[in-house]
Amino acid sequence: MKKITALGLVLLMPLGTFCVSPVFAADGATVCITPEDFKENLGSWKYQNDDGSKPFESMLIGRSDKAKDLLKPAGVNIDVPTDGTYTVYVRTRDYASYPGTRQSQIAVNGAVLPKVLGAHGTDGWAWETVDSVSLKKGTATVQLVDITGYTPRVEGVVLSSDKSVKLPESKTDYAAFKKANAAKIVAGEHELSLRDYRGNFSRVDMILITNDRAFAIGESRELTQKLQKEYLYKKGNATARLFRLPLATAKA
User: Fold this and answer.
1) Helix (H) or strand (E) segment spanning residue 244
2) Per-residue pLDDT tens digits for 32-41
3) Where are the beta strands (DSSP E) in 39-148?
4) 3-state helix, strand, coil in the chain (%, to 5)
5) How confident is the model over 139-155, as pLDDT tens digits?
6) Is 177 helix (H, G, I), strand (E, B) or coil?
7) Whole-model pTM over 0.70
8) For residue 160, what are the CA distances in angstroms to 172, 183, 195?
9) 129: containing domain
10) Domain boundary among 181, 209, 237
């Protein structure tokens, strides 16, 4: 792969670049989520089987018109096989032309992880190490968040508690990796829908994200109080998260 040498761009070596064949979760659990797994809830993303930028061929592609008010996450519910601390990896595409501008983020159980994806400095596909999350055995929600509306691309997501997991770099190895670590999809609501959103990110102070919905905060005192009462102060509601905008730099 060629390396982008744009001024000021931090170049990261993609994890697993020297991997010949994958080693599958010898010391932990690994879950591989493919673009196909998101097809039931694509949001504003689209599924594409091949756009000529191989090696793995299928991918999710975000909007191309930069219409940020129309962006909706793609989402899927997966079965977490065991309790543990899982490292999140996402395989994204960067380009020599306008590098680092096709950005996205990933959310796990409603919490948007702060790392911005798609700016890894490789002219091509690369695995990005995002963050570590603590998960319990059972259902977890994974979402891909388009934050630019400028064709971000995602080829796969891996959650692994195995510190020695080897991520695939070839189509053959990826096929074997998927077969060994395929995500078990769980039915249920999981969309981070912006259907209750009014306005745009620049005019709203905060956004409340629950397991399946997102709400603007700051449009009116009445709305804010209602949402606080229903979600923030409701005893036993462990799925609610409150973020300050913009979403790209949001923290719980």
Assistant:
1) strand 241-244
2) 999 999 998 9
3) 46-48, 59-61, 74-80, 84-94, 104-108, 111-112, 122-135, 138-146
4) 15, 35, 50
5) 999 999 999 999 999 99
6) helix
7) no
8) 20, 11, 32
9) 22-181
10) 181
